[in-house]
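Title: Prediction job returns without error message
Component: structure pipeline
Severity: low
Priority: P3
Assignee: unassigned

Description:
Job completed but the reporter wants confirmation the result is attached to the right record. Sequence as submitted:
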Amino acid sequence: MSNRNKIYFASDFHLGVSNYELSREREATIVRWLDSIKEDAAQLFLVGDVFDFWFEYKRAVPRGFIRFLGKLAELSDAGIKITMFKGNHDMWMFGYLNKEFDATLVSDELVIELQGKKIYLHHGDGLGPGDAKYKILKKFFRSSFCQWMFARLHPNLGIGIALVWSRRSRLSQAKTERFMGEQQEWLANYSKEMLQKEHFDYFIFGHRHLPLDIRLNESSRYINLGEWLNFNSYAVLEDGEVFLRYFEKEPYGAHNGVNDTESLIDEKKD
């Protein structure tokens, strides 16, 4: 009888930031986590920004991450279904990962029923009101014209430009996220707006870089998966309920649907 009855969610590994040594150390941690779930995982959802930069040229991909990619191939070969979302840092994933270990690629949202629960999944970028500049950039970067133009650059130049851009990111600059209060959490507000149109048991996002568990009403919750530079946070769906968990870290996040994240983040910064 199979013990594969859990479904795992993680996001924002940002492999490649901020330098090779730290990225390799983080990659090793992620591989240990994947090893720890391989006996009971039925599915694995990686909800965007797995890589701090990714572009698939016709005959080349960015160097590195071989231990991580090899572990995903091992899990896939063991029968674990892997779904990968395109984030704002790795939106240029095309067919390579699907070909190598049968990963399902998701460009935007995914609505899915798992263990009797209706779940809305999205990396989280570009949702809700405001941020018009990024929404325009996202549309351009995802256009076939932009991808064709970037592919014309030699990989040394193209990846070099991307690394310079990456060093300007909030993670590269060691900016620690803080809980802004439920009314200021735009993904929670977006989830509430979605609930006016359709019921979901869970909204699961990445992108925010802060592990959060917010109860939206009596039957719906918003989960943010956090990131793996500070928190090593992920979620697991077991027997129809989603739990936030932390790998080799003390928990820094919301508990039982009540946010006490801000004070904990402040302690971590000190």
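Comment from assignee: result matches the submitted record. The CA atoms of residues 124 and 205 lie 5 Å apart.
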